[in-house]
Design brief:
The protein is mainly beta and 137 residues long. The protein is 12% helix and 45% strand.
Length: 137
């Protein structure tokens, strides 16, 4: 078990060290660390990394969330909750993803000014990754 855990950590560290000068590999999106969600104006379909990363967005701008789960899950086991003011306002399926990395496009929701908590959850509601951002007028 420890050997498998060490191998997993090594793979994640090596994957996180890649860069555009690495020759080959997927595009330029950034992947969040384990159990975190990052936000941006888009995502790279090659590696599912977030592009145009930000924590504050203006009303009407594109917003996507990319979450890196602690462990791999099947897409039908993952959903994304959008909370504000302490209440879940909406639950969505992933837009893209598999394994440990999932994406949800929040743009069609037309989010208004507020602070939002985005949680990637399993069928039992257990939080697998999360992050927060603000929408400003």
């Amino acid at each position: 078990m420890r050997r498998a855990l060490r191998l997993l950590v090594l793979v994640l560290v090596v994957a996180g060290c890649g860069g555009p000068a690495g020759g080959g590999g997927a595009g330029g999106g950034e992947l969040p660390p384990l159990s975190a969600a990052w936000f941006g104006s888009g995502y790279d379909p090659g590696n599912l990394g977030v592009t145009g990363r930000a924590a504050d967005f203006k009303v009407g701008t594109p917003i996507v969330a990319v979450g890196t789960l602690l462990g791999a899950r099947n897409p039908d086991e993952v959903s994304i909750t959008i909370s504000t003011g302490g209440s879940v306002r909406k639950t969505l399926p992933p837009t893209a993803g598999s394994g440990q990395t999932y994406v949800v496009d929040l743009t069609p929701l037309g989010l208004g000014p507020a602070g939002y908590l985005i949680s990637f959850v399993d069928k039992a509601g257990k939080q697998l990754a999360s992050g927060s951002f603000n929408v400003k007028p």
